[in-house]
Design brief:
The structure is a single chain. α7 (96-116) crosses α8 (133-146). The longest helix is centred in the middle third of the chain and has 21 residues, at 96-116. This protein starts with a helix and ends with a strand. The protein has a seven-stranded mixed beta sheet with strand order 6-2-1-7-8-10-9. A three-stranded antiparallel beta sheet has the order 3-5-4. The chain has 289 residues and is an alpha/beta fold. It is built from twelve helices and ten strands. The structure holds S-adenosylmethionine. Residues 34-36, 86-90, 94, 128-130, 134, 161-163, 166, 216-218, 234-236, 265 line the site of S-adenosylmethionine.
Length: 289
């Protein structure tokens, strides 16, 4: 069978070896800068995922690649490496039961006291937003929930990630059809403009209420002026080891209002012995009042 038929080429077959020492150097970097933990058994995965990247860059060893990362004046090469070994994969309405719970339980419960106090300030943070789908989803749900009252609320979504590439997609607001496949038709019509080639563009009124920023969750200080009512940090902590996760959960706790909610990914858990968060339903926790 020819390489044409198999979809591979000689290029794909030649591989660059990743020594134990090179693997340790790369793992140390992503752990120190982004909290991403690569246990030794991930060495093969890293080797396989990075083959094409090295070849594309004309590099013949992982030592060269490591030096390229550490000598760069920006964080982006390391972020790109992190992106190859983690994933930016996301889509609209991912883990939908969370959104149902948000609109049916969390939003009514959290906004009622604010309304009574005439304090129309409601803040959500989407931490590890990747290419923006989850953040736009939160803004849409907020608009649906508040309805005609939306304009009197200072409600918005802060969305952060370490990846500039992912944030550029988020800021652009253009999505291919499969990313919005789970979105109900009425949401598509209301919040998106259909472009040629099955591209769906987020409408300006939705875009203006989502602020995208680069932010590393490993920063010791979370520089937010006011606490959040709701934080979504889903499918991000899977890459962190336990001490890193526990410390991050504590920082989330500190920047939530009493009674505020933290949504995490369904494959993630919070160590309840080291945190005061109250378990609500799978992958949802609340800071006690
Ligand atoms: C799989 S995506 C999750 C997207 C979305 N939250 C979801 O559940 O669909 C994981 C994101 O976490 C980001 N990430 C990983 N480590 C991070 C860190 N230390 N600080 C901020 N973002 C990080 C990655 O860049 C990636 O975009």
């Amino acid at each position: 069978m020819s390489s044409h038929q198999t979809g591979s080429s000689v290029d794909d077959i030649v591989s660059v070896a990743l020594s134990e020492a090179e693997f340790e150097n790369l793992s140390r970097l992503v752990y120190e800068r982004f909290g991403i933990y690569l246990p030794p058994e991930k060495r093969t995965m890293v080797t396989v995922r990075l083959q094409k990247v090295l070849r594309r860059m004309g590099m013949t060893s992982f030592r060269q690649y490591y030096e390229y990362i550490v000598k760069s004046s920006s964080n982006e090469p390391l972020i790109e490496f992190a992106n190859h070994i983690t994933t930016n994969h996301t889509f609209f309405f991912r883990e939908k039961d969370h959104f149902d719970y948000l609109i049916k339980r969390v939003l009514p419960e959290m906004t009622a006291p604010l309304k009574r106090r005439q304090d129309y300030d409601f803040r959500m943070w989407c931490a590890g937003c990747s290419s923006g789908e989850e953040a736009y989803m939160l803004a849409m749900l907020m608009m649906e929930f508040f309805g005609a009252e939306y304009s009197m609320w200072k409600a918005g979504v802060l969305a952060t990630d370490i990846s500039e590439k992912a944030l550029a997609v988020a800021d652009g607001g253009d999505y291919v059809e499969e990313r919005i496949a789970l979105l109900p038709e009425e949401y598509k019509r209301k919040y998106f403009q259909a472009l040629p080639d099955k591209i769906w563009r987020v409408k300006p009124f939705l875009k203006q209420d989502v602020v995208f920023r680069k932010f590393n969750l490993m920063n010791d200080v979370f520089p937010f002026k006011k606490p959040f009512h709701v934080i979504f940090c889903r499918n991000v902590m899977i890459y962190f080891d336990k001490p890193t996760r526990n410390a991050l959960v504590q920082r989330f706790y500190d920047c939530l209002v009493p009674g505020g909610y933290l949504f995490i990914g369904h494959s993630e858990t919070i160590d309840r012995t080291s945190s005061d968060f109250r378990y609500i339903i799978p992958a949802l926790y609340q800071k006690p009042l």
